[in-house]
Design goal:
single chain, 271 residues
Amino acid sequence: MNGSAIAQSARRIWGMMYRHLALFRRSWPRLLELAYWPTLQMCIWGFTSSFLAMRTGNSVAVAGGVLLGGVLMWEVTLRSQMGFSVSFLEELWSRNLGHVFVSPLRPWELVAALIGMAFIRMAAGVVPAILLAWALYAFNLFAAGPVLVLFFANLMLMGWAVALGVVSLILRHGAGAEALAWSVLFGLAPLSAIYYPVSILPAWLQPVAWALPATHVVEGMRALLGSGAILWSHLVAAAVLNVVWLAGGALLFAWQFRVARRTGALLSIGE
């Protein structure tokens, strides 16, 4: 791909992103919604951790901090997935998907634009919650240091991989699958070691939990906040699993997109 083709692709990707950003510029409820749920989750678990610390002492205060860190980290995955999926759904709701692909836009450029919007949505939702956790509970997630970037990157990659699967199912089953955009990751939460270590799970469920990239990230975060040790093995495992998840999501999306284009579903899927 030469420089001119790259510039044209970048322009098309930015055009798709700008379409969604323009909606936020004109609608303060949309902006409020981005931060509402992460902040609400942080407040609920933060007050719960504070209550336990007041009742039982410092050891539970440390555990409460780890719990709060897990909740905030999970929001990175959740908001990344929902940011991608909801941006795609907005194309369906506006009956715009068919019009988009009449243009020179390629499927991978649409995916790149959705990833860009997912990152913006995630940052707008999670960063205020992290700052509020520091202000209300003196819990500074950024104290984890530069390794936090690797934690966030792996969590975002998992969110995008799941979103590709969700979008593929919407292409296949239409509006009846829209609820998956909000429900899929909630179903994976009990296996992701957010609120408790993997060892708490039944033995037969633990291999399933270890197949999730987020499980390795949260366990690594728990070790870092608890003992200060960086367990690189968890980060490497999360990265390898994310490659597998992303490859699977991308192949599924490419397959369902070809089917939807061949059957004309791109024009009628929102109806």
